[in-house]
Design goal:
With 416 residues, the chain is mainly β. The protein folds into three domains: 40-131, Immunoglobulin-like; 137-239, Sandwich (Immunoglobulin-like); 243-391, L,D-transpeptidase catalytic domain-like (Beta Barrel), CATH 2.40.440.10. Helices cover 6% and strands 36% of the residues. The chain has three helices and 28 strands. The strands form seven sheets. A five-stranded mixed beta sheet has the order 22-21-20-28-23, with no helix packed on it. It has a four-stranded mixed beta sheet with strand order 1-8-7-4, with no helix packed on it. The longest helix has 10 residues, at 167-176. The N and C termini lie far apart (100 Å).
C-alpha cells in the first residue's frame, strides 16, 4: 500500500483593491478555518513532561513539549517566568518536539504558551503553568557602598556569600549584575577582585551630578553545582561634583579642584623617609571629626611613638592614612615632609578640606618616594589600574586567575 506524503499548505495574504466604493476583501485560509479566526484549543494536540497544578518540579529537569499524533504540529513555544525572563528552547524541524536549552530557574512560576496548526493550517494554542521547587543553596549578592551621595571616583562593590570559581559561572553572574547611569550611559566593567568580590567602575570617572543604579537579575537562576541566585536589594548612588585633590609630596602643596577649576591651594606635609606616603589615586573612605592616633596600633614605637588627638580627619586607606589637621608640625607645612604617612595641614585648612570633601572624591599623591597604592585591599585603589588591565578582570572578556585574592583589608588604626 502506498503512502501519500502530507503537504503543509502555506497561505499567503494579499489585499484586493476594488473599484471606487467597494470594500477590501479580508485574508483567509482554505477550508473552514480562516487564519483570522480565534485559535482553537490545542489541549489534545500537545503534551508536556511537567504537570500543571502538581507539586513544584525539579528545576534541573528540562522542559519538553511534544505533539500528539499526526494531525498537527507545533509552530512556536514561549516560556516566561514570574520575573518576565524567557526560557530558551529549540523546536525540531518537523514541529513535533520542543525542549528547553538553558536551565530552569528555581522557586518561580512558568507560563508556557504553545502555538500549533492543524493539517489545513488553522492555528491552535495551549497554555499551561507550573512551579519549580525553591533552591536549597543560594548565592546572595550584597551591593555597596551604602545608598547616598558620593564623589566621581566611588566604585560599586558586589559581595557574594558563596565563592564562584569557574569562568562560565562568573560570566553568568556578571551578566546579571546590571549597572545603569542617568541621564547618560557610560562605558564600564566589573572586575573580579577574588572569588567572592567584584568591583565596578567606568572607563573614566562617573559623570558629575549623575545617578548610578545597580541591581541583580540572578534570582532563581542556576549558577552551577546546585547553586541558584537569590533576590538582592538594588542600590542607587547620587554622584556629586567632580572633586580632584592633587597632593604633591615634593613641592609640599595640595591643589584642590572642583569640576576642573582650582578653588584652593594648601601648604602641607607628607610622610618623611621611612614613612613615605603612598603614591597613586585614592578614594575618600570617610570622615571623622576626632580620632585618637597612636603609633603602637600600626607597629610604630620607640622614639617614633606618638599618641595624639587629631581633628578633621579624612580617611583614604584602611591601614590608617588620613588627611588631617597637624598643628604640631605647622612650621614644616609647605617646606618639608615630617609625618608618619598622613597628609598634615593647619587646623583651619583641615577644617575647610573636611567641609569640602566627601566619600568617593579623589585624592592623588604624586612625587612621593613611597610605595604605589595597592589597587585592592587597602581602600579603593581601583583607578590605579589602566582600562585594559581593569577589563582583564572581567569574566566576559578574558580568563581570570582562579582563586586569586588581594591583601585583605588591614583595618588598622591611624598613622600620622
Amino acid at each position: 500500500m502506498s503512502h501519500t506524503p502530507r503537504l503543509w499548505t502555506v497561505v499567503s495574504c494579499a489585499m484586493l483593491v476594488a473599484s471606487l466604493g467597494a470594500g477590501a476583501t479580508a485574508c483567509g485560509g482554505s477550508g473552514d478555518h480562516p487564519l483570522s479566526a480565534r485559535p482553537y484549543d490545542a489541549a489534545g494536540q500537545v503534551a508536556f513532561n511537567q504537570a500543571a497544578g502538581s507539586r513544584p518540579v525539579d528545576p534541573d529537569r528540562p522542559l519538553e513539549v511534544t505533539s500528539k499524533g499526526t494531525d498537527g504540529r507545533i509552530t512556536d513555544v514561549t516560556v516566561v517566568d514570574t520575573h518576565g525572563r524567557r526560557l530558551a528552547g529549540e523546536l525540531s524541524a518537523k514541529g513535533d518536539r520542543w525542549h528547553s536549552t538553558t536551565p530552569l530557574s528555581a522557586g518561580v512560576r512558568y507560563t508556557v504558551t504553545v502555538s500549533t496548526e492543524d493539517q489545513r493550517g488553522a492555528p491552535g494554542q495551549r497554555t499551561m503553568t507550573f512551579d519549580t521547587a525553591p533552591a536549597h543553596k543560594v548565592l546572595q549578592v550584597e551591593f555597596g557602598p551604602e545608598e547616598g551621595k558620593y564623589g566621581v571616583g566611588q566604585p560599586l562593590i558586589a559581595e557574594l556569600n558563596e565563592p564562584v570559581h569557574d569562568k562560565a559561572s562568573r560570566a553568568l553572574v556578571e551578566r546579571a549584575l546590571v549597572v545603569e547611569t542617568k541621564p547618560k550611559p557610560v562605558e564600564g566593567s566589573w572586575h573580579w577582585v577574588d572569588d567572592s568580590r567584584l568591583h565596578f567602575r567606568p572607563k573614566e570617572y562617573w559623570p558629575a551630578h549623575s545617578t548610578v543604579s545597580v541591581r541583580s537579575n540572578l534570582e532563581g537562576v542556576k549558577i552551577g553545582n546546585g547553586l541558584y541566585g537569590a533576590a538582592s536589594k538594588p542600590l542607587k548612588l547620587e554622584i556629586g561634583d567632580r572633586v580632584e585633590v592633587i597632593t604633591d609630596a615634593a613641592s609640599h602643596w595640595m591643589t584642590f579642584k572642583r569640576n576642573g577649576e582650582v578653588i584652593n591651594s594648601i601648604p602641607i606635609t607628607t610622610g618623611k623617609p621611612g614613612f613615605s606616603t603612598r603614591n597613586g589615586v585614592k578614594v575618600v573612605l570617610g570622615k571623622q571629626y576626632y580620632v585618637r592616633m597612636r603609633g603602637d596600633t600600626v607597629g610604630i614605637g620607640g622614639s617614633e611613638y606618638y599618641n595624639l588627638p587629631v581633628y578633621y580627619a579624612t580617611r583614604v586607606t584602611w591601614s590608617g592614612e588620613y588627611v588631617h589637621a597637624a598643628p604640631w608640625s605647622i612650621e614644616s607645612h609647605g617646606y618639608a615632609n615630617v609625618s608618619h604617612g598622613c597628609t598634615g595641614m593647619s587646623t583651619g585648612n583641615a577644617a575647610w578640606f573636611y567641609e569640602n570633601i566627601t566619600e568617593g572624591d579623589l585624592v592623588t599623591v604624586i612625587n612621593s618616594i613611597g610605595e604605589e597604592m595597592d589597587p585592592f585591599g587597602n581602600g579603593y585603589g581601583d583607578w590605579n589600574l589602566d582600562w585594559k588591565d581593569w577589563r582583564d578582570g572581567s569574566a566576559l572578556l578574558k580568563d581570570t586567575q582562579e582563586g586569586r585574592s588581594p591583601i585583605d583589608k588591614a583595618r588598622l588604626r591611624p598613622q600620622v
